Amino acid sequence: GEDVEQSLFLSVREGDSSVINCTYTDSSSTYLYWYKQEPGAGLQLLTYIFSNMDMKQDQRLTVLLNKKDKHLSLRIADTQTGDSAIYFCAESNNAGNMLTFGGGTRLMVKP
Amino acid sequence: NAGVMQNPRHLVRRRGQEARLRCSPMKGHSHVYWYRQLPEEGLKFMVYLQKENIIDESGMPKERFSAEFPKEGPSILRIQQVVRGDSAAYFCASSPATSGRGEQFFGPGTRLTVL
User: Fold this and answer.
1) How buried is A4 (Cβ within 10 angstroms: 0-12 exposed, 13-18 middle, 19+ buried)?
2) 20 to 30 A from A67, CA-CA: which of A111, B2, B17, B44?
3) Measured between CA atoms, how close is B89 to chain A, in angstroms?
4) Are A45 and A35 in contact (CB under 8 A)?
5) What is the dihedral of CA A60, A99, B107, A44, to 10 degrees?
């Protein structure tokens, strides 16, 4: 079955870059996603990448996809205290109607 | 354009009672998904519905849990005879029928506490 793994915790200083990593197992996933969850809130879609792409950049966010190794990463440039949250990667199933989430990486940004 | 609405935001029930969680999808979205998030864990898929149809309920527990999405009104996730292990955040998401990217837009969640 599908399994998505993330490291639990990341701490960075304000202004540094953050890199959050994710590995997945379902090679048939068409899209992979990054969501952000702030305390007590729902999930906010940050960005997504199509499986035939290697990289996608969106302002401070850069997504890298290594399909051979089934490795996905999210880089946040110039990390701000407002970026402190839990970040989830997710993959869609073949039909695109079910998301499988990793356990989330808690990002703490120190001033 | 209002986002996905869920209510109540917080729900407290005693063991054995019933919990009803409601979800109104974004305007124009006809697909609804329910996910459960246990404390300190990621979200786990429960069920996928379209209007008046359950499409995929592979993540739903076989007993006590049911979901519907009627022609009119919100989608309802119903948990009968709740137990302490049902305490979790329940998130609803919606998508338009034509979304090729599979994007799902999430509501703020209902946090269920079973005493």
Assistant:
1) buried
2) B44
3) 9
4) yes
5) 0
Q: What pairs with residue B78 in β-bridges?
A: B20, B66
**Tell me: the pLDDT tens digits for A51-109?**
888 999 999 999 999 999 999 999 999 999 999 999 999 988 777 778 899 999 999 99
Q: Dihedral through CA A41, CA A93, CA A33, CA A42, nearest 10?
A: -10
Which of B31, B91, B100 has its CB closest to that of A43? B91
Shortest distance, CA B43 to any CA of chain A (angstroms): 6
Residues 6+ apart with CB under 8 A from B79: B18, B19, B21, B64, B65, B86, B112
Residue with tokens 């290594």: A66
Burial class (CB in 10 A: 0-12, 13-18, 19+), B90: buried
Residue in A48, A101, A102 closest to B103 by CB: A48
CB contact under 8 A, B106 and A88: no
Report the DSSP beta bridge partners of residue B91: B35
Optimal mutation site among A26, A43, A63, A88, interface B, most CBs of chain B within 10 A: A43
